[in-house]
Every structure is written in structure tokens, then in C-alpha cells.
Write a structure and sequence with these properties.
heterodimer, A: alpha+beta, 64% helix, elongated, B: 531 residues, alpha+beta, Multidrug efflux transporter AcrB transmembrane fold, Gyrase A, domain 2, Alpha-Beta Plaits, 3 domains, four-stranded antiparallel β-sheet, 19% strand
Chain lengths: 319, 531
């Protein structure tokens, strides 16, 4: 059987040749998308701003404008209506009215009664309601978990490698998360708790790629003490290229299946991971590696690791 | 490295078979797992999250102002009982509450110290804080104030939540047979998960009633004009009627309270109107009998959660310990009240602050699509591994399949529930488990290209790849642990699967495949490797 090889043996691509162009272009893009996100804002779901959402399943496809009109006629002018996966299912979002629980319940039961009258056979089964306090907590927890995950992982890499690698990992994360945020600001896809989980996954897998490449760079730094850093990084990237491509393809196959066949409810989560895979594969090559050149990693950065064999350890180790 | 002694081979197979065994109950239909699966085998199953099974999730929070108010009221009663009735009596003026503290005058200045000492004696220390639950102080030489401390208020809420949790459970599931989850969350919250319920309104109605039932005498001396303005004579208070029609003045003193109930049932009166029939315990029955005996031909207010349900006349003494509550009930509302009363009153009012309901249809749709996507994703990955690595791909695939079973088995043991984000996490773990094998196999290819002999190439492939596998999985573990710690709901469901998957995938990818490769190499003694 002839085995599949996506990357031929002895591939030697000069990745680092375009490192300056690449890092300038995509880092500017990342910053721009962060500014764009701040300017345009994210479409935050009720998880983070509070409110109520009900899902209505109709027997026949319903015209969204007509549905809007019908809902507005119920006195629920603030409702926002979205198609949800199919033309027979819609998501209706309402703010939580002032006043106590009773008021909120009444809005939903009014909506249910009104819809049932206008569209016999409609099923208003699922719904969520999140109060202002809880949504603030959820938003806080989400932001904190993202922040701590980034800091935690970068710190780990700093301890396992050298500070330059930690900086590289942080820069890579900043790049990837900013671009993803920009995507969500641009498409106005709803950001809920699932999306936070997706972001955390992207954080994990971006760093997975980065760590594998860093691991090889470290190994080669010890092996080839005389090689120039740019050449050495190129060499390491090419050595790991086959693994990078093979793993990314396997992950894309898995996530692609989930994206195309999986339930509508997790579309946001899967699309974020899908995009994150592309961004992460790119950034582990063009952001994490060039940062090492910029911060001046040299073979001496690891000299203290095998100190007794080579001679007296240099204090501090890092350049 | 590739030499596997018999005991090692056996123990690896043992662990894997055990894992598969753990996953079997979760893969069978529920009924079959319960009835036909042999009892001596592990029977824990993965439960489905509400987003897949359909059902309602409610997060309830204690109404702190209400709790504080209730505590102050109880303190007023305690002070009166302690100082006015217990010997030696302390002569005090009206006990009143303002600005969140209870205060009263001591008539005889010589008794101030006595009053303070007696009250201090009934305050309790709050565990681990070094403070007591109330501060007793003297102001203006004869006025005593009793102020709740923050520690005391928090401890009271926390105690109340434990009781509230049990009351909520009894109300939703009086027979104790449903698979519901009710648990406290933090200091002042209760989480309720009820699979299958599609009408959260009924659920909220059940929990929404505090069900504090009190019987008080109507104050007939009150001037109707003043009552309409909301003013009542000393010792009485004005309460609204439950139907909102009017207000009524009742004596502050509670004659009998719902605490002394043993049972409540929905019933009908002579005219066929729904009522709630209640039965008192022995002490309650005696008291109820005495009070009604002393107050024949006077109206008696039945008060629920601060609203007067009705104020019927006492026609004759009620001695049997049985009474009927009349109000404008429907059969449903009478039934709800009966459940609420017999499950006990909530020690504190609970507000719904988060609610999620998923209809069973939507849940079913999600499972079907999720399972289909998982199967297709796994099949694609298996095929890809096979065409990329040949024999080594087969080993990787065996590890992947075993890994999937292990994840299910471990989840079942920990009683983790599978949620929608969990399915995504599952698919992702399958994808990621591949990475460890890819790292190893790519490394073997490389070592072979460098001219190493077969056995040597395999050995250094496993050895050199291991640091990258270790570091990469630690980073993912950090992300998963942080999700688990900070995350809520969906994030946790995702993180649990991810974390279990990381551990099982490293085990299967490194140990299991190495054993398979090792056994093959020893038997076949290949000259070249097809990889």
C-alpha cells in the first residue's frame, strides 16, 4: 500500500524569509481587529447581558417579517427575532422587564399565547432567562478564565523553556484571540458561554502547535550550536512541518464533520474552533517562531541546562 | 523500551478492558442496563445534560432583604418572650424595628444590665469568625439595641439554604422518585435541575411560594377609615387581602402557625369549591382548639406569605386538629398550596435568577445530530490515519477507539453528564488524541530517514516525541483546569470531557500503541518499516 505523504521528505521551505512582512501584516491586522471589535461591539448573548430567549418551532416555514409584525403587535416591540437553523425555527429574544419575576413570566406567557393564536401548532418549548446579576458574573468568569488560561500557559512555557518563548507564546495568543474577536464583531454571530469554551480550546490548541515547534527548536539549539538562529528555526519548522500538516488535517476533518453535521446549537462553538485551527497553525509558524529571532534566542540560552559538560554555567542563563 | 514483559502486557490490557467494561452500561438503552445487565458488574451510567435530555434548569437566590426582615421579626418575638414572660421579668416598652435593628426602652434603669445580659446569653457564636450573630448594646442609658452582625446574617442565610434545598426537593418531587437534582451552590443559591419538565412556569409557581401560613385574630376594634389608610392600632397590623380587594387589620400575635402542620391536602367544601384541608400535630391541635374556643363568633384571618387568604368567622370551637383553608382557589392552586404546606415553609424567599429550558424534541434532535457528527468525524480521522501511516495507522486507530471507550467509562464513574459542548469536546479530543500518534510516527519516519535501523528508529521515535507530547498536553490541561475552576454550565461540561480525554489519550497513544508495536516487532522482526 502506498502511504499518503502530504509533505514530501526533505522539504525545505524558507519560511523565515517572509517573517518580517508576515509579522507586520498580521500583527497589524490583529490590532486593527481589536480596535474594530471595540468600535463595532460584540453581539453578546443573554448569558452576558441578561434577558430572555425563547425558541419557537412552527409547523410550516414562516416569513420572518410577518413574524416580526405579529410579535410587535403583542406589545413586545423590543423583541429581536432570528432564524435558528431552519425556516421553521426562530429564536425570539426579549429584555427582562423591570419589576419582579411575575412580570418576566407574563411576557413569556403573553408571547406563547399570542404565537399559538397566530400560528396554530407552534411549539414554544425551549427558553432561557438570565438575570442581570448572574449575567455579570458569567461575563466576569468568562473573561477571567480566558485571561488566567493565557497567563497560566505562558508562565508554564516560560518555566519549561526560556522567557523569550513565554513572550512568543503570549504574542501568539494575543494575535489569535484578537483575530477571532474581530471575526465575531464582523459577523455579529452571538457570543455566549459556548464561545468562551471555544476560545479556550483555541488557546489550548494554538499553544499545542507552538509548543511542539518550540520543543524542536530547543532540541536543535542544543544539537547545532554553530547554526545561525534564522537558519535553525527554518530547519526546525521544516522538520516538524509534516506533523503540523498531518495533525491540522486530522483536526479539520473532525471539526469539519461537527460543523456540517452537528446540531445548530453549537454552530458558534464549532465555527470558532474551525477558524482558530487555521489561525493557530499559521501563527505557530509566523508569530511564535519570528518572536524568538526578535527577542534574541541563541544556543547559549540553553547552555545552563547541560552546564557541567560544557563548562561553567552562566548566571541567569538567558541572553 | 519495546520489551514488554508479560505482566506489563497483562496490566495494560487489564486497564483497557476495565475501562471498556465501565463504558458498557452507558452504551446500552437505559432499561436494558437496569434490568438485564448483571448486577456484579459496574452499573454507573453517563447521564445526559439537560440540553440533550430536555428539561429545566433553575438557579434560585435567597432574597436577602426578606431574610433580614424575617430575622428581625423573629428577634422581636424572642425579646418579648425572654424579657416579659421569663422570670425575673424585665419591664420594657414597645419593641420596634428601625434602620435594620431591634430596639426597646427598659423602664427601670436598674434593670438595663439584667436585660443586656439575658439577651447576650441567647446570641450564638458564629463558627470560625470569632463573632456572635447579634450585637447587644445600650444607647442613651436606657435604650437597648440588638443589631444583626454581618457574620450572623451570612451564617443564617447559609443555614437557611440547606433547609431551603430540602424543602424545594420535597415540593418538586413529593414522592422522592424522580431523577431531579437540587443542590446548594455557593452561600445563598440553590440549583434545580429537572429533566423532562417542559412547563417551567408550574415549577416556578411551586417554588415561588414561601408558604408561611399563620392564623391571627382580626382586630375588630380597628377604625375602618384608618385601616384603609394602612394604619392599625398598637399591637395590630394592616395586611392586604390576597385577591387585592381590601386590607384588613389583624393582631400581630400569631395564634397558630404552619410549623405545627403534619399534613395538607386539596379538598372541596360543601359547595364544591376547592379548599385545602390541613391537619395539625398534637400541640398545634391543642392550641388551635383553645384559641377557637376562646374566640367563638370572632373572625379569624388565614394568612399566607403576608396576605390574607380569607377571614372566616369561628362558628364553633374546632377541636379535632383538622381545619379547612378557604380562599379563591382553583383545583390547581389549592393543590399547589397543599404541596407547599406539607413540604414545610421555605425559611427564606427564593428568587429565580437564571432559567434554562430545553424542549425534549430539541434535545433529541441535538443528540441525533451530535452522535452522527461524532461518528463521521471519528470515521474520517480513522481513515486518514490508515492511509497516512499504514500498519502504524492501524495501531493509532486501535488506540483511538480504546480511547473513546475509556473517556465514556471514566465519565460514567465520575457521574459526569454529557452535554452538547461535551460532545464537541469529545470530537475534539479524538482529533487531538491523533496528535500524540502523529508526533510519534513522524518522529519514527525522521529517525529512519537519518539512517537508523528499524528497532532503533522506533525506540528513539517514542523517546524523542515524548517531551513534545508532555509539554503540549500540559498546556491543554492548564486550559481545561482553568475552565473547570472558573467556568459555569456549558464551559464545565466541555472542560470535563477535555480533561478526561487528555489523560486517556496520552495513556492510549503512548503506552498502548507502544505495546502493540513492541509485540509486533518482536514477532515479525521487520527489516524495513512501511511508515
Amino acid at each position: 500500500m502506498k502511504l499518503l505523504k502530504l509533505v514530501p521528505d526533505n522539504t525545505n521551505i524558507d519560511f523565515m524569509r517572509w517573517r518580517k512582512v508576515a509579522i507586520v501584516i498580521t500583527m497589524s491586522l490583529a490590532v486593527a481587529s481589536l480596535i474594530f471589535t471595540a468600535y463595532r461591539g460584540l453581539n453578546l448573548g443573554i448569558d452576558f447581558v441578561g434577558g430572555q430567549v425563547v425558541q419557537a418551532e412552527f409547523e410550516k416555514p414562516v416569513d420572518i417579517e410577518e413574524l416580526r409584525g405579529n410579535v410587535a403587535r403583542l406589545g413586545l416591540a423590543d423583541a429581536s427575532i432570528q432564524e435558528f437553523g431552519s425556516p421553521t425555527t426562530f429564536q425570539i429574544r426579549l429584555p427582562i422587564p423591570d419589576g419582579d419575576e411575575g412580570a418576566a413570566n407574563k411576557v413569556v406567557s403573553d408571547l406563547r399565547a399570542g404565537l399559538e393564536q397566530a400560528y396554530p401548532g407552534v411549539d414554544v418549548g425551549s427558553g432561557q432567562s438570565v438575570s442581570g446579576n448572574v449575567s455579570e458574573e458569567l461575563a466576569m468568569d468568562g473573561a477571567l478564565s480566558l485571561l488566567f488560561a493565557m497567563i497560566g500557559i505562558a508562565t508554564y512555557i516560560w518555566f519549561r523553556f526560556e522567557w523569550q518563548f513565554g513572550v512568543g507564546a503570549l504574542a501568539t495568543l494575543f494575535h489569535d484571540i484578537s483575530l477571532l474577536l474581530g471575526f465575531f464583531a464582523w459577523t455579529q454571530l452571538q457570543v455566549d458561554l459556548n464561545i468562551v469554551a471555544a476560545f479556550l480550546t483555541v488557546v489550548g490548541y494554538t499553544l499545542n502547535d507552538t509548543v511542539v515547534i518550540y520543543d524542536r527548536i530547543r532540541e536543535n539549539l542544543r544539537k547545532y550550536r554553530k547554526m545561525g538562529i534564522v537558519e535553525l528555526i527554518n530547519f526546525s519548522l521544516n522538520e516538524t512541518l509534516s506533523r503540523t500538516i498531518t495533525t491540522s488535517v486530522a483536526l479539520l476533518l473532525a471539526i469539519g464533520a461537527l460543523l456540517l453535521l452537528g446540531p445548530e446549537v453549537i454552530f458558534g462553538l464549532t465555527i470558532a474552533i474551525f477558524l482558530g485551527l487555521f489561525i493557530g497553525t499559521y501563527s505557530s509558524i509566523y508569530i511564535s517562531a519570528p518572536i524568538l529571532v526578535m527577542t534574541g534566542v541563541t544556543p547559549d540560552s540553553f547552555v545552563h541546562d547541560d552546564a557541567p559538560a560544557v563548562g561553567p554555567a552562566r548566571p541567569g542563563g538567558a541572553a | 523500551m519495546l520489551d514488554f514483559p508479560r505482566w506489563k502486557v497483562l496490566s495494560i490490557w487489564g486497564i483497557i478492558l476495565f475501562g471498556i467494561l465501565l463504558s458498557i452500561p452507558s452504551l446500552m438503552p437505559k432499561q436494558m442496563a437496569e434490568e438485564q445487565y448483571p448486577g456484579f458488574l459496574p452499573s454507573a451510567r453517563i447521564s445526559l445534560g439537560l440540553d440533550l435530555a430536555g428539561g429545566s434548569y433553575l438557579l434560585l437566590e435567597a432574597d436577602e432583604p426578606d431574610a433580614a426582615k424575617q430575622r428581625l421579626q423573629a428577634m422581636e418575638d424572642t425579646i418579648q418572650t425572654e424579657l416579659r414572660r421569663n422570670e425575673p421579668r424585665v419591664r420594657i416598652g414597645d419593641v420596634s424595628t428601625s434602620d435594620g435593628r431591634v430596639s426597646f426602652m427598659v423602664r427601670d434603669p436598674a434593670q438595663v444590665d439584667e436585660a443586656v445580659e439575658r439577651l447576650r446569653a441567647i446570641t450564638q457564636p458564629v463558627a470560625l469568625t470569632g463573632r456572635r450573630d447579634w450585637d447587644v448594646a445600650v444607647v442613651d442609658s436606657t435604650r437597648v439595641t440588638v443589631t444583626p452582625t454581618e457574620e450572623g446574617a451570612r451564617a443564617a442565610i447559609s443555614d437557611a439554604m440547606t433547609v431551603a434545598r430540602d424543602v424545594v426537593r420535597r415540593r418538586i418531587d413529593p414522592s422522592g422518585t424522580k431523577e431531579i437534582t437540587v443542590r446548594t451552590s455557593g452561600e445563598k443559591r440553590v440549583e434545580v435541575m429537572v429533566p423532562g419538565v417542559e412547563d417551567p412556569e408550574a415549577l416556578k409557581d411551586l417554588i415561588g411560594q414561601t408558604a408561611r401560613l399563620e392564623f391571627k385574630l382580626v382586630d375588630m376594634s380597628a377604625d375602618p377609615a384608618l385601616v384603609a389608610q394602612g394604619r392599625a392600632p398598637a399591637g395590630s397590623e394592616v395586611l392586604p387581602m390576597a385577591d387585592g380587594t381590601a386590607s384588613i387589620a389583624v393582631q400581630r400575635r400569631v395564634m397558630v402557625s404552619g410549623d405545627q402542620l403534619v399534613d395538607a391536602k386539596q379538598a372541596f367544601d360543601q359547595d364544591g369549591n376547592p379548599t385545602v384541608s390541613i391537619t395539625f400535630n398534637a400541640a398545634g391541635a391543642r392550641r388551635f382548639g383553645r384559641v377557637t374556643q376562646e374566640n367563638v363568633n370572632k373572625p379569624f384571618a388565614i394568612i399566607l406569605d403576608g396576605q390574607v387568604l380569607s377571614a372566616p368567622n369561628i362558628n364553633e370551637p374546632i377541636l379535632g386538629g383538622q381545619a379547612q383553608i378557604m380562599g379563591n382557589f382553583t383545583v390547581d392552586s389549592a393543590n399547589q398550596l397543599a404541596i407547599a404546606l406539607s413540604s414545610g415553609k421555605l425559611p427564606v424567599k427564593l428568587n429565580v435568577i437564571e432559567e434554562r429550558t430545553v424542549s425534549a424534541d430539541l434535545g433529541k434532535d441535538s443528540i441525533e445530530k451530535g452522535v452522527l457528527a461524532s461518528v463521521v468525524a471519528t470515521a474520517l480521522v480513522l481513515l486518514y490515519m490508515l492511509v497516512t501511516y499504514g500498519r502504524f495507522g492501524v495501531y493509532a486507530n486501535m488506540a483511538l477507539v480504546v480511547n473513546a471507550f475509556l473517556i465514556l467509562g471514566v465519565m460514567a464513574v465520575f457521574n459526569a453528564s454529557l452535554t452538547l459542548p461535551g460532545i464537541a469536546g469529545f470530537v475534539l479530543t479524538i482529533g487531538a488524541a491523533v496528535d500524540a500518534n502523529v508526533l510519534i510516527n513522524e518522529r519514527i519516519r525522521e529517525e529512519q530517514r537519518r539512517g537508523r535501523k528499524t528497532l532503533d528508529a522506533i525506540e528513539s521515535g517514542y523517546k524523542e516525541a515524548s517531551t513534545a507530547i508532555f509539554d503540549a498536553n500540559i498546556t491543554n490541561t492548564i486550559a481545561a483546569v482553568i475552565m473547570l475552576y472558573f467556568g459555569s454550565g456549558p464551559i464545565r461540561g466541555f472542560a470535563v470531557v477535555l480533561l478526561i480525554g487528555i489523560i486517556t489519550s496520552v495513556y492510549t497513544a503512548v503506552n498502548f500503541t507502544r505495546m502493540l508495536v513492541g509485540l509486533w516487532v518482536r514477532k515479525a522482526r521487520p527489516k524495513t518499516l512501511e511508515i
